[in-house]
Amino acid sequence: MEPETNFYQIGGFRAHSDGWFQMYDDKPTIDAIMNDNGPELRPGGPGAPIELVLGILHNGASYVLMTSHQMWTFARKHRLRPPLRRPWTVNEFASLSPIYFATKVDLQDKLKTYRVKSQKNKKDKCDNSPANRGFVQLGDRGTKSNPRADFENQRVLYRLFTKSATPGALGLINPPWAGAIRVISIIVNTWHKDRRPERFDKPNIIDVGWTDVMMPEYLQSGQVTETVHIKMKGALKNEEQNAPFEHGTTNQEGAVDILYSDIRRVFTHDAANVPLVILVHDEEMVRGVLARSGIDVGSFTSVSALFQRETIAPKVLQITFPATRPVSFLT
Predict the structure, then answer these.
(1) pLDDT value at residue 320
(2) Cα separation of 319 and 328, whole Å?
(3) Lowest mean pLDDT among 17-21, 178-182, 271-275, 277-281
(4) How far apart are the C-alpha atoms of 187 and 231, rounded to whole Å?
């Protein structure tokens, strides 16, 4: 399907659904949506959950949406007047992801979080709902990071791998990399009691582990390119005991210089048209270790850069050494 460009808000502040059945009462709308067994709202078939879209704005606020196709089909079926208010456009959202409702209570509980408080005597009305009141104060300027959108974009990435999401319904062009993308999961374990200001630049590393796979091939075959566990020789110890390494043999003689050399080798990535995605825990620490290994972490970008919502591909930052392909950083 062609990528959706317009989306219509269900419930909440200035919702497009306000004038459908009963003004400012979501119950008739909820009943109509949950009683609908058409393929537009239940692409999984009759009895499958209702599938709508969750949109996260750049400031972190969220809304439950219908695609334009869903809205027009729903409006015709129930002889409703299409909303007069302009729709949300795809570029107004930092993320668009599927959201499912198995029961009427599920949808009711979700829309309840978007219910606004009375603002009769307020000149500049805004979304003061429990779901969004902490975000709308930021306006359109957003924040340096948007963890809600990052999380949802990571969900979308996984669903594209498993073919359980329709790119066009989320405003996405079918990604050319969906058949092959490299994923490295890396963990750096450091001394937990280290409180030095320079601990991210000069960490007390205890051990490091990584796994390198190709997606979606890994989901089908379980094939792993490489799994490594390196324990630093003479390293400090944490009070907690690590779980045993079950996917190979631990290198007990790790040295910093060799470790950084191994990391440079792993992150060499020059496969044409195959993006590299990095999964991490404690992003700041991993960035520090990768930087000391000679990796240009300043060129890393979020996974959203992989998603194309226009016919012209977006500019994607690249690792300059040793890789030449786009790299996305997930936490």
Answers:
(1) 35
(2) 10
(3) 271-275
(4) 12
Q: Greater confidence, 193 or 42?
A: 42
Secondary structure, 3-state, the chain: CCCCCEEEECCCCCCCCCCCCCCCCCHHHHHHHHCCCCCCCCCCCCCCCEEEEEEEECCCCEEEEEEHHHHHHHHHHCCCCCCCCCCEEHHHEEEEEEEEECCHHHHHHHHHCCCCCCCCCCCCCCCCCCCCHHHHCCCCCCCCCCHHHHHHHHHHHHHHHCCCCCHHHHCCCCCCCCCCEEEEEEEEEECCCCCCCCCCCCCCEEEEEEEEEEECHHHHHCCCCEEEEEEECCCCCCCCCCCCCCCCCCEEEECHHHHHHHHHHHCCCCCCCCCEEEEECCHHHHHHHHHHCCCCHHHCECHHHHCCCCCCCCCCCECCCCCCCEEEEEC
Residues 322/296, Cβ–Cβ less than 8 Å:
no
Nearest in space to 116 (alpha carbons), one of 24, 23, 21, 195: 24
Q: How confident is the model at residue 159 (pLDDT cuts 50, 70, 90)?
A: very high
Residue % of the chain over a pLDDT of 70 = 89
In the DSSP assignment, the letter for residue 65 is: E
For tokens 């509980």, name the residue: 109
CA dihedral 121, 127, 133, 137 (to 10 degrees): -90
Q: Vertex 287, ends 282 and 288: CA angle to 5°? A: 105
**Model-wide pTM > 0.70:** yes
97 residue type, one letter: S
The residue type found at 58 is: H
